[in-house]
Design brief:
heterodimer; A: 140 residues; four-stranded parallel beta sheet; 5 helices; 4 strands; globular; B: alpha/beta; three-stranded antiparallel beta sheet; 7 helices; 9 strands
Chain lengths: 140, 222
């Protein structure tokens, strides 16, 4: 049985600006997997740990965050904060014996660039290989 | 303040694995300030517990709450707000809070979500350092305000020891030799002679080695 993961991407306004300007069709042409849902936030530094965990609770198999390069965040340290929060979730996932690589942080340049789509493809490939998230097991 | 660290999530999930509904209870005191058990941490832990239970194929209901403090009876009474909504309480307060709930709610299951670590202060953002051991017999007036009980690896009363090198402790280069600091500070405040005073053998009976300690203030009791 083929498995298509539910992947939730949280991208800051700046790193996703030009890519999203292309629209869904443009993104599809660029190779963005259809099963990757983009969630735009004003700054990844605004993302709370609980928001990312909620995405797992709502059925995500994988999650990634795209923020500015660590030293070029529009809000100075926003993407650095996001990376720390992603690390905190990786630690918690490991404590629950769930693959920490189900969540990842990417620091990308602003504007249109192929790396934005490549990050999505990388996560799609990784999560497809890992299989369904263990949090989605049948409840008793 | 009391510094605490959240326990590993799997340990906490293991405590509540038989529960159907739990109250995750934070404290707005010390553990909020050290980001271990305040409102935000309650929200995160509740989510992690739900996820941990889902991984086991179980579903658990979580109610989230935070009390002003968990170390006073009148605030513990606030738990009644969630009466009937939980099988067990997961307290994110320090060990005092967990004990208070256990004392005052004899039939309620209560579990600790944090490891209560030490009395300390914020050294930098996200960094807390032990400053006081709560030994019950303060000598800070003799040591320039720096505590040798909590901050010397050997709790020496007459330091420094031979392991002090360039102001650092022999246990780790990152750790300052507090006796070097005491020496330097006493000099700066014009009290260097205090270093010549030999502290007598210390009476540790106030340090909790004789059972739980108690403070009684007759002027406050009713």
């Amino acid at each position: 049985m083929t498995f298509t993961p539910d992947i939730q991407a949280f991208c800051c306004h700046y790193t996703s600006q030009q890519t999203i300007a292309e629209g869904r069709e443009g993104l599809k042409e660029d190779g963005l997997p259809a099963n990757v849902t983009l969630n735009r936030v004003v700054c990844t530094g605004k993302l709370q740990v609980s928001t990312l965990l909620k995405a797992f609770e709502e059925g995500a198999d994988g999650i990634y965050v795209v923020g500015c390069p660590a030293d070029q965040c529009h809000n100075i340290k926003g993407s650095q904060r996001a990376a720390k929060r992603v690390d905190a979730i990786k630690k918690a996932l490991a404590e629950l014996a769930v693959e920490p690589e189900r969540i990842e942080m990417f620091h990308l340049e602003r504007g249109f660039h192929p790396e934005f789509v490549e990050a999505a493809q990388l996560m799609n490939k990784r999560i497809t290989a890992l299989g369904p998230c263990p949090f989605k097991g049948e409840t008793k | 303040m009391i510094i605490a660290d959240r326990k590993p999530v799997d340990e906490i999930v293991g405590m509540v694995s038989d529960a159907k509904k739990i109250l995750v209870l934070g404290c707005r005191g010390c553990v909020t300030v050290c980001s271990a058990g305040g409102e935000r941490e309650v929200e995160i832990l509740a989510s992690l517990i739900r996820l941990g239970m889902l991984k086991q194929g179980k579903k658990i209901e979580t109610v989230e709450g935070t009390l002003v403090r968990q170390c006073d009876k009148e605030y513990i009474d606030g738990i009644d707000e969630w009466q009937g909504q939980y099988d067990a309480i997961v307290s994110m307060a320090c060990g005092v809070g967990v004990n208070f709930i256990a004392n005052l709610r004899p039939t309620t299951k209560v579990y600790p979500a944090v490891n209560t670590s030490f009395f300390g202060g914020s050294a930098d953002q996200g960094v807390w350092m032990e400053q006081c051991a709560g030994c019950g017999n303060c000598v800070l007036h003799l040591t320039g305000g720096l505590c040798p009980v909590a901050r010397c690896a050997k709790s020496l009363m007459n330091g420094p020891c031979g392991g002090s090198v360039n102001g650092r402790c022999e246990i780790h280069p990152d750790v300052e030799c507090i006796w070097q600091s005491i020496h330097d500070r006493l000099g700066r405040i014009g009290n260097a002679a205090a270093m010549n005073t030999i502290a007598p053998i210390r009476d540790w009976s106030t340090a909790g080695h004789g059972g739980p300690r108690k403070t009684l203030r007759d002027d406050l009791t009713i």
